[in-house]
Amino acid sequence: MAASVTGAAPAPQASPTLLDRIVPAPASADPGGSPYRITRGTHIRVDGSREARGVGEYLAKILRPSTGYRLPVTAQGAGGIRLRLAEGPFGAEGYRLDSGRHGVTITASRPAGLFHGVQTLRQLLPAAVEKDSVQPGPWLVAGGTITDTPRYGWRGAMLDVSRHFFTVDQVKRYIDQLALYKINKLHLHLSDDQGWRIAVDSWPRLATYGGSTEVGGGPGGYYTKADYKEIVRYAASRYLEVVPEIDMPGHTNAALASYADLNCDGVAPPLYTGTEVGFSSLCVGKEITYDFVDDVIRELAALTPGRYLHIGGDEAHSTSHEDYVTFMDRVQPIVAKYGKTVVGWHQLTGATPAKGALAQYWGLDGTSAEEKERVAKAARNGTGVILSPADRVYLDMKYTKETPLGLSWAGYVEVKRSYDWDPGAYLPGVPGGAVKGVEAPLWSETLENSGHVEFMAFPRLPGVAELGWSSAASHDWERYKVRLAAQAERWDALGIGYYRSPQVPWGAGGQ
Question: Catalytic residue numbers?
């Protein structure tokens, strides 16, 4: 009635995002009490550690442009936003977020937990907080407590920079998107038939010649050692560990073209710009092959602070089984010699995986029982398993036959299909403790820029992140799709172009 008297409708009351609306779903969310409002007087309080201050500065950089507030990061004062390291039942990556009228406190045992808690805080704020210009607010955080720890320690995303090259800045953009959903591994596919993307001082033509093209014959490119270190540094600042991959003995045409001696016949093939697979192989019987592998792994391991080094091992169709086993028996100890743990595609289980090695399963629901059992047997013998089933979480698979980008050899993978499976029960005969987590690969045969990457990753990537983070008991498509739809407004604010799946009830915020 008041509106008709005054001629103006009352301003709508802002209501904060509910605690249980975030992605990935938290372990527990208990609403209660008044919301906290970020104001011009809010401080971000951190303890004395360098890591906590770094997370605080990261949060301030996100909040300052949209709020217009100073938000000083300080070790003094009371109230406001507090980031606190303390012993507790949080593990390496868990956290607790407490919100009420007087402030928000994020508590964690380790800096990674603080960082993940900050991602939750971002999602509890209005999507406009992501914009790079001042927005009207208000900036409310719902009252209550979230307590959260991840289901799996490996929550990965792979980016293929070999089929098409992506610049350091493009990789950084993807890292920021992964961080929002608590992904903690960035697997970089650095070599393939179409391009070699990392400088190796002892074999310089790998990058300068082998990196000079890409699918379709474009200019390609490669990372200098300084470039790669910058990617690693940036990823670490977002609590992602870089897992570099040098695929071998197959997928090696760029290397074979660069050095004739790596070929059994001593003749270098031409550079390759197509998309076929399985035709190339290092020469298993030549000793120079292992000198080459030793040099590459030594230099790459020295640049990589993380624990893992991925040696590929898939689609080695031009390598006999005997040669494949011989090769893996020679190469896996080289990885260990330089202080790294082997990761390989699941074909590695056709040889003898090294102690502590991880096998990355990329088969399909319909892969033969024999092949699945080979992986399961290795798992029962101590090999860890990362799940990347191609017809579930390969982000380069088309959503439908009309999708303008991507491939369809594993079928069409709509959003529900990518989400609606349980990593813990996916492979028969694999002990639950052998499943280390999930990873969403994004192969780039058809992808040339960040817009292409984002269209194929969103909205499927957040679902894979949830499979890795959230408990099996929380898994429910009908509830998830509503939470996913609410993310669209945030993607719009971040400039992420996404696929508007008809399976998701996009609201006004996704327009």
Answer: 315
